[in-house]
Amino acid sequence: MQKHQSVWMHIGAGSFHRAHQAWYLHRLIQQGDDSWSIALGNIRNDANVLLNNLAEQNGEYTLETVSPEGERHYEKITSIRKILHWDEKLSELAKQASAKETRVIAFTVTEGGYYLTPEHELDSEQVDIKADLNGEMRTIYGTLAHILSDRLAAHGEPVTLLNCDNLRHNGERFRHGFLSFLKLKGETALYEWVKTQTRSPNTMVDRITPRPTPDVAERVKAQTGWDDKAPVMGESFIQWVIEDDFINGRPALEQVGVEMVESVLPWEEAKIRILNATHSCIAWAGTLTGFNYIDDSTRQEPIKEMAWKYVTEDVIPSLSPSPLDLEKYRDVVLERFSNPYIKDTNQRVAADGLSKIPGFITPTLLECYQRKHTPTATAVLPALFFVFLKDWAKGKLPYEYQDGVLDATYFRALINSDNALAQFVANETLFGSLAKSPEFYSLMEKTVANVEQWIKSPEQSL
Ligand code: NAD
């Protein structure tokens, strides 16, 4: 194949893209397949300095990775071959999107970049969405509507729209949002074209990538001699699972360890229940027992044991049979969380508990009851969160608790009432049909008492 014949255009010049997707495409080039390259741009103007720095370095930068044992590794990433500079009209993005060689348009615009309601519908009341419906380009929807209509006018070759953000069913949910946006905007021809000439496979992406601090550039300089103006750092672990549904070709990603599958569902469920739920459990337990960081909290044997039991006793039976080795996945996740070189805060991970309980935890509780197994180990998670909320209401948390859906007045009153736990458990948004289950209430009563006892002597097992 001809050199750089196909372009992967990426929207969202954050750290994660450069530590993840760009690394895989770089690896492919290293293996001798240089048929694909990346063109990188951004919707907002907050990445201009970075884009300029990258342009000065011909798109190249250093990726530092660190293993749980503290081994650091440095690699020059070479897959970004074109920088799409920002201007108000996003003219370079539009031009690149219209090029025939652009076969994939991928994006990382954060979880908040999709403006969906809890029912996964486009939230057209949001200011940014209203602005885009009036022709602006503040969001992925307004931007794609604009640049894809240019592509349709130019030649209308098909293109894959690939969501690489951390969102359950990310391809489907983005696509539903985008089609709803086009309908509301009255873009009939574009709507029909997007429906037939684009695809949006679901993907599961994974690599912890903190925002780079100044010491990354210092280490890169010391190790490689290069005064890199745009280094990134991440953990050594990396994973990418993609539904194999591309409409106009794709890089041979399976050659570099990407799992190309028919359905991403088993991976997504494993990630949400084993990685995300466990992460929150550790953050709540760690906070309640005086720790600030995820790695310190995970290395406390009783906390690790709590997480291990939850996954082993309740989650694995729920997700089996699975194409994944779930025991191994559990062990790798706990090892990653213990990595002392990735200083992730309990505050960041403890956030948004009110969304995480129904999204990450209640499905496991329900499935345990369905198979007539009492979810003793899973009940610890909402019990920890309840005790955590009590500390929040008393102003005893060591940091500000962030939760996008927290109605502070309602929850303060609930926690201060005589039957706080009964009200908490009866909340259907959190616990679905279990909110009416006396059996579940009695399990929670016992578990909250155990958790409160444990906090007094956290060196003991729960
Ligand atoms: P980052 O803060 O470095 O970059 C965020 C990028 O998104 C910026 O380019 C910003 O301009 C853009 N952006 C923010 N809000 C937007 C909006 N509403 N519309 C359009 N663009 C918007 O973040 P990052 O580390 O690159 O992470 C980005 C996303 O990648 C995460 O939100 C997550 O979905 C996914 N991800 C990140 C990690 C990680 O560890 N960092 C791991 C897995 C997945």
From TrEMBL:
Boundaries of every Mannitol dehydrogenase C-terminal domain copy: 264-449
Pfam families per record: Mannitol_dh, Mannitol_dh_C
Gene3D superfamilies: N-(1-d-carboxylethyl)-l-norvaline Dehydrogenase, domain 2, NAD(P)-binding Rossmann-like Domain
Gene Ontology MF: a single term: fructuronate reductase activity
Mannitol dehydrogenase N-terminal domain mapped to chain residues: 9-254
Signal peptide: none
UniProt keyword list: Oxidoreductase
Protein's name according to its UniProt entry: D-arabinitol dehydrogenase
